[in-house]
Amino acid sequence: MRAVQACDYAIGEFKCLRRLLLFHGRINLIRVSEMILYFFYKNFIFTVIHFYFAFFNNCSGQSIIDDWFISLYNLIFTGLPLIVKATFDVDVTPLDGEIVDNLLPFLYKEGNDKPIFYPLSFVLILIRGLGHALIIFFFLYASLQEAAVDSSGNIADIWYLSVNIFTCIIFVRYN
């Protein structure tokens, strides 16, 4: 009885343990693996763009993106998609009933045979983030360098470049 009082949650019957480990464990393994890759990808793009910008301002320490955008990026644009995905994304629903009960060991084995998070996938995500950051920064830097951005003939300043880079980062997709 004391063990039940000391733990975070308790299972009344062992027949519930199979479904908890195999079904819910598989879904959470998929969610956590995709979440880790997603966070590394989005934050790598965000960080590498600052690294590229450092070469153009003689490593002065000036940030290309405003502090408010950095805070909103980590709060809203990175967290909200994961909350929505964790809430609604299930490949096998618990309502499938008997099919899920019959396939439980095979569903778990599928996650072990084809893992989502492994060293090569991590390296590929970092390379993809590096490439996307390279394209975003240098394309916008080259296109806005001497271009007039309004009817008065003003050219783009650092704020204009910053907003465009941040907008592109938001619209770049993970998948």
List the helices and strands and how they pair.
Elements: H1 2-6, H2 15-56, H3 67-77, H4 79-88, H5 98-113, H6 119-143, H7 158-171
Task: Write up what this structure looks like.
There is one protein chain. Helices cover 70% and strands 0% of the residues. With 175 residues, the chain is an all-alpha fold. The protein has one domain. Helix 2 packs across helix 5 (98-113) and helix 2 runs parallel beside helix 6 (119-143). The termini are far apart.
Order of helices and strands: HHHHHHH
Mean pLDDT: 78
Q: Please state the overall shape, judged from the principal axes of the Cα atoms.
A: elongated
Distance between the termini: 47 Å
Give the total of beta strands.
Answer: 0
Radius of gyration: 23 Å
- Beta-strand fraction estimate: under 5%
Helical coverage, percent range = over 70%
Please give the count of helices.
Answer: 7
Profile the largest sheet: none
Question: Structural class from helices and strands?
Answer: mainly alpha
Unreliably modeled segments:
none
- The figure for the number of domains is 1
